[in-house]
Specification:
The chain is of the alpha+beta class and 198 residues long. It has 9 helices and 8 strands. Residues 180-198 have low confidence and may be disordered.
Length: 198
């Protein structure tokens, strides 16, 4: 009996695998399903040429894995259909940014960078959302727990890898990081120690 997929082009097969997958698809998965390794980058480029005037594109996310994404110019149109299961506070986003940029980082280090104490539940919400996970304990007095971002964090925010984030030197040269101000998010300086998370 003839396998119907053998009658389809590599482009059609790869498009089907990427569009039907609930998670980004990498070359190992594609090769395992097809039984050989096609030139995925070339085929993805061809697919994106086909999608030029359509609302989606295929993008490479986290370490050579591909996923279908809505084009940025169409995001407002599709936003109404997106599931909004979690609403994070500004404190949550600032905490997540500090963890992403300084990981592995302890709770006290997060508080020092932000300039305020963490509200109860801030880290728990980030862990529940799948953006943050527990890291190794720091070899310092008290052996505090450290926190790291997850692959889900990279996928959710469409970041290819942690190396794509600015490093400390870039942040300092842009005036976003200093001992006096802590970390500035979006051009707004971190609150002073007198502020609270609200």
């Amino acid at each position: 009996m003839i396998d119907p997929s053998s009658l389809l082009s590599d482009k059609t097969l790869i498009e089907t695998l990427i569009l039907s997958s609930s998670a980004p698809v990498g070359e190992p998965e594609i090769a395992a399903r097809l039984g050989y390794s096609p030139d995925i980058r070339r085929i993805v480029d061809e697919l994106n040429d086909d999608y030029e005037e359509r609302g989606i594109s295929i993008v490479e996310v986290a370490n050579g894995r591909w996923a279908a994404r809505t084009r940025p110019e169409c995001s407002d149109l599709s936003r109404a259909f997106a599931n909004r299961l979690l609403k994070m506070s500004r404190a949550g986003y600032e905490t997540l940014a500090v963890i992403a940029l300084f990981q592995p980082v302890t709770r006290s280090e997060i508080e020092r960078v932000r300039g305020v104490s963490l509200s109860p539940g801030t880290l728990e919400v980030l862990i529940y959302a799948g953006f943050v996970r527990l890291g190794p304990r720091r070899a310092s007095p008290g052996n505090p727990m450290t926190f790291l971002t997850t692959e889900h964090f990279l996928l959710h925010f469409n970041i290819s890898s942690l190396e794509a984030l600015p490093d400390r030197e870039e942040m300092a040269s842009a005036g976003l990081l200093s001992a006096e101000r802590g970390l500035s998010i979006g051009g707004i300086a971190a609150p002073s120690t007198a502020d609270t998370d609200g």
